[in-house]
């Protein structure tokens, strides 16, 4: 529901006065309009949504094959697998960066000056 509210705020000037359909794969969101008990935040959202002429439509994720395929493409996804020990890899990479080498020298020089004081 937060994403729907955000999008409506961003595109408000295009959507006011037009009838449109909001499709969601979250079944709980599709019952938002018929909910009797609302939290204060949900009540504000409902007041905001009253400005628009829209229909909230539930569509199961399996039925939305095109969006599902796009969201699952491996080329578009980000992998976060780190090979080896992370601190060791960072030290290896920093050893090749001239700016990082200079920062390490400055840090070591400052450390030496504090030990002497």
UniProtKB/TrEMBL annotation:
This is Reverse transcriptase RNase H-like domain-containing protein. Keywords: Endonuclease, Hydrolase, Nuclease, Nucleotidyltransferase, RNA-directed DNA polymerase, Transferase. SUPFAM superfamilies: DNA/RNA polymerases. GO terms for molecular function: endonuclease activity; hydrolase activity; RNA-directed DNA polymerase activity. The keyword Endoplasmic reticulum does not apply. It comes from the Eukaryota. Residues 2-52 form the Reverse transcriptase RNase H-like domain. The lineage of its organism: Eukaryota, Viridiplantae, Streptophyta, Embryophyta, Tracheophyta.
């Amino acid at each position: 529901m937060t994403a729907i509210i955000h999008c409506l705020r961003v595109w408000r000037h295009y959507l006011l006065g037009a009838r449109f359909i909001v499709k969601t794969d979250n079944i709980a969101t599709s019952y938002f309009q018929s909910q009797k008990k609302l939290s204060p935040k949900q009540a504000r959202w409902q007041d905001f949504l009253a400005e628009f002429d829209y229909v909230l439509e539930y569509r199961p994720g399996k039925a939305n094959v095109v969006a599902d395929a796009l969201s699952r493409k491996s080329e578009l996804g980000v992998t976060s697998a780190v090979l080896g020990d992370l601190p060791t890899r960072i030290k290896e990479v920093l050893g090749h960066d001239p700016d990082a080498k200079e920062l390490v020298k400055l840090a070591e020089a400052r450390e030496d000056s504090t030990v002497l004081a």
